[in-house]
Write a structure and sequence with these properties.
Shape: globular
Structural class: mainly alpha
Helix content: 40-55%
Largest sheet: 3 strands, antiparallel
Order of helices and strands: HHHHHHHHHEEHHEEE
Radius of gyration: 20 Å
Strand content: 5-15%
Length: about 375
Amino acid sequence: MNPQTDRQRRVVEICLYDYRSMPGMTGRKPPPRSQPHPSQYVVNLERQLAEGNKVACGIERALRYITGAETQGKPCEEGALFFLDPIISPKPDTIDDWDPTASTPTLNMEALTVQAHSIAAYAYYRKYTAPTKHLEAIVEESTGRFARPEYQTHADDHFENIMNAARHATHAAAIDFVSPAVLLAGFAFKTLVEYVGIDLGAIPLYRPLWRVLERWLRERAAAEAEAKMGHGVVEERPAGDCGARKCTSTFAWGADPVAWTCECASDVRPWYCNIECQDHDWLRHQKVCATRGSIPTPFYIETQYELARGVLGGMLILLEPLVHVEIMTDEDRLDPRNGDVLCESDLPCPFGTPGRWVRYVVKQYRWISE
């Protein structure tokens, strides 16, 4: 397979697919019947593209830039965000942007918006974890062709990048769209929040994101228990030197492979041919990772420790109730931190899955002192 085509495929799966629909990601096979088939996540996008939908076209351009298809193979996060900004409002944390019953956008359009948030979460996550050399290129792009001063003033501000990644991941999580990008951004944010001594579940604004992270951790624990009993999924060995499944790349002499930054022993820690393979394989590696559910905080963030602690600490207390429109399951009602349901309605799946209905709820979050 062409390396660039393979990179595009992996980024599409990272950003546009829900991990529960991807075999091998949940630790169980097959994916739940209640979950849309993987192809369903791109069918709606392709249909809207064929109709010339501007939102769909913006998403396609964003994907081409973040994969490097438009920039000679070099991923361009600023270019992706440049085309996503008109789709994801500069002030997306308002009730109007969450309303699924409004005359516009339609449910299919809402699905596109949620996927745009997923791509944005991944772009900001990439900026948050970018090595110094790549970050310099990002800064150059942000002051030139893809200047976005009304959305972000400092493209190399790590705290601002992870906060933006978490905000967009939360929007996707609220509509129960949990892509690998949402999990990457979510666990990176969770690691930072815990680094400054705060519980993510205690911050009302991010409770939809906290909820899906906790659900994933429970699934991982259950899969691990099944594996110990001999009922786990047999792992597929990588076909090449790269640690990612279905990647056949071999490391040529002088190559600079990417290693996942974790505390795994050298015989377990995987190496990857590029960042996309690393990010795509993150969920699979969590089955054996010594630092499961944790993404190392870049050393740069140490200089922003007090800022992060002050900002995040200030978000613990709500002066007024926070209202979200979300997709919710019955099990989510059990934890008081999941908010109070003000009203609810069963509506067709926003991704257009035939015969699948989901429950939309209007939730109110209050400050919980415990």
